[in-house]
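This section describes the prediction task in plain terms. A model, or a person checking by hand, is given the sequence of a single protein chain and must write out its three-dimensional structure as a string of tokens. No templates, partner chains or ligands are provided. The sample shown here is typical of the held-out split.
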Amino acid sequence: MDGLPKMRDVDWKISEIRPGEPEAAAILREYLDEVASRYYGRPATPAEVDEALAEEPSDGLVAPTGAFLMACRDGKPAGCAGVRMVEPGLSALTKVYIRPEHRGQGGGKLIVAAAEEAAKRLGSVRMRLDTRHDLVEARALYASMGYAEVEAFNDDKYAEHWFAKDLS
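The expected answer:
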């Protein structure tokens, strides 16, 4: 996305892409493999990743109901994030992922900021998300970007922490 800051010595580029594109599908599978493996405390099987993909489809992450963003670093896919409109004015941040070799390089903040901009373009004034207790890096990222913990707004079996942020 134009207007996003560049990280020193690294060329990050964030762009909107359809979740069904091969690069998007590959990074979504990688994301779900990691979160499923962390949840199970062991490497997830391909069948478990397939099940997670089926439980959390990404096909709604396209305008006007959402957006899917791909982060590339030095021209190669490095991460992703999704935005889904929940209701008029309210969006959900989902599927935030930075490949391990790119972590700690500012990509997480860039992709979340880009997701916030995409949400605003879709008419959102408030963004919310849920995450698990074991995803400590994600929780730290959200807190550093102004997301505050809020009361539970769903009963998702994988949600243990809920956050929200006004986008205005």
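For orientation: The helical segments are 22-40, 46-55, 107-121, 136-144.
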